[in-house]
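note to self: dont lose this again. the chain is below, predicted strucutre after it. 136 aa total, dont forget to put it in the shared folder this time
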Amino acid sequence: MLKKEIIKYPLANQEELESWPSFKEDDLAEHWHETFFRRIIQHNVRVASVYYRRIHGARLANLLGLEVQRLEQEIASMVSDGTLYAKIDRPNDIVRFCAAKNPESILSDWAADIDKLLNLVETTTHLINKENMTAQ
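---
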């Protein structure tokens, strides 16, 4: 089961993993190593996108234990695949993981939050009145 945690590479049981036959075959060993490493990077980027809306690229690369160029390459490939939304601002070295919202969606989200709050206040008031009636 994958958790929403950053996976450090190499893994604690890396030697056991590399003893599998698919990692030992000469013609495919390098391919499987690279694929495995890419999947770990992609998992880590998805985890970071859950916890951060924007982060400096150098800081994210440091957290994931990567070079900045490799991180940008993987983010770009994930964005082009459609598995992640991200924008990279290279001059400011900022990676943004959330899309900018238009004013209509901001207002509708706000209205929905206000509606939830008013329903909660109404329910609470009803329960307080009910408690007062039974106490008398």
